[in-house]
Amino acid sequence: MPQKQKSKSWAELKQAGNESFKTGQYGDATNLYSQAIKELEKSSKKNPEDLAILYSNRAAGYLKDGNCGECVKDCNMSLELSQFNVKSLLRRAAAYEALERYRLAYIDYKTALQIDCNIAAAHDGTNRMTKALTEADGLSWREKLPPIPTVPLSVREKLSQKSPATSPQPNPTPQQNQTPQQNGTKQTNKPALSDKDMKKGQILKEEGNALVKKGEHKKAIEKYSQSIKHNPTEITTYTNRALCYLSVKQYRDAVRDCDEALMIDSSNIKALYRRAQAHKELKDVKACVDDLNNLLKVEPKNSAALKLLQEVQKKK
Predict the structure, then answer these.
(1) Does residue 1 lie in a domain region?
(2) Cα(28)–Cα(50) distance, rounded to whole angstroms?
């Protein structure tokens, strides 16, 4: 009498799912992950983190097959089991983006960046969502966003050690494997910012803003410079300091600050406009026009940019 074949463990099914995913057999992969989920659910040694990974992996299969609704459901399950799982945040963001739910996609991309500010896919996604939301809602698009969850420092420190690109789990979005040079995002090896640094950076930035209102641009530059030492990821500090550099005619410094800002968000309106102003003063008409054209792609009716473009084109 033939022996009954022993059923595979959830770990074996997961491994088989990973192999199918790697060879592009996404339907088979999702089936195997489903079986693995059932086996693990039955197990007495059920671990929430293992289950979260299985849901996240199955979400990757659904995403590849274009089944974005199921991808979102699985990511929700994964994030309930393992809050702030970076892969689940990125997969859900990609699914929301495909479903044109841009506000929710933006929230997930920004949450992922709190955990690890070096994730290329999250930078790219944030830039795309900023552009889409600006086109849809105009300059007030941020006011319509749901609140962005704050990732506690302890969680950031723990999760930033686990880079999404190095995990053996399937990787659904090709952007995650791009280099910073390929996608125009800035990559640093700096550790996650502490809450103390972020707060100090914010206080110094606000002191700088107060000095700008009084017309004390040189003193404001000092405050912004101190703020950047505490938090080098805050885009408005660079664009604010660039404005001050323009006021004191330090145009090359203004360009450098705008470069920094545009590495964080390549479609930032203020950075593009202020860099265009600096290029104009440096007599670099081509660079000025390029910046203004890029700005007008994001915001076609920006009156200040249209006026400046008219000015510099007359001088050609």
Answers:
(1) no
(2) 20
pLDDT digits (tens, 9 = 90+) for 140-158: 888 888 888 888 877 776 6
81: domain range?
10-165
Mark whether 108 and 36 lie in a shared domain: yes
The answer to whether residue 184 sits within a structural domain is no
Does some domain include residue 2? no
The answer to whether the CB of 32 falls within 8 A of the CB of 14 is yes
Separation CA 291–CA 134 (nearest Å): 17
Q: Give Cα 282 distance to the centre of its chain.
A: 32
CA distance 170 to 177: 12
Q: Give the whole-angstrom CA distance, residue 139 versus residue 194.
A: 30
Six token digits for residue 229: 């030492």
Structural domain tally of the chain?
2
> Which tokens sit at 127?
């830039």
| pTM (predicted TM-score) | 0.53
pLDDT, residue 139, reads: 82
Indicate the average pLDDT of the chain.
83
Percent of the chain with pLDDT over 70: 86
CA gap 59, 88 in Å, rounded = 8
Do 30 and 156 fall into the same domain? yes
CB environment 83-112: b (16+ within 10 A), e (fewer): ebbbbbbbbbbbbbbeeebbbbbbbbbbbb
Q: What integer pLDDT is reported at residue 117 of this predicted model?
A: 81
Establish how many alpha carbons lie within 13 A of residue 158's alpha carbon, considering only the half-sphere containing its beta carbon. 9
215 near 243, Cβ under 8 Å? no
Label residue 137 exposed, middle or buried (CB < 10 Å: 0-12, 13-18, 19+). Answer: middle
CA 297 to chain centre: 20
> Do you know the residue count of the chain?
316
What are the two backbone dihedrals, phi and then psi, of residue 74, each rounded to the nearest 5 degrees? -70, -40
263 and 301 in a single domain? The answer is yes
Condensed to tens digits (0 to 9), the pLDDT of residues 239-289 reads 999 999 999 999 999 999 998 888 878 888 999 999 999 999 999 898 899
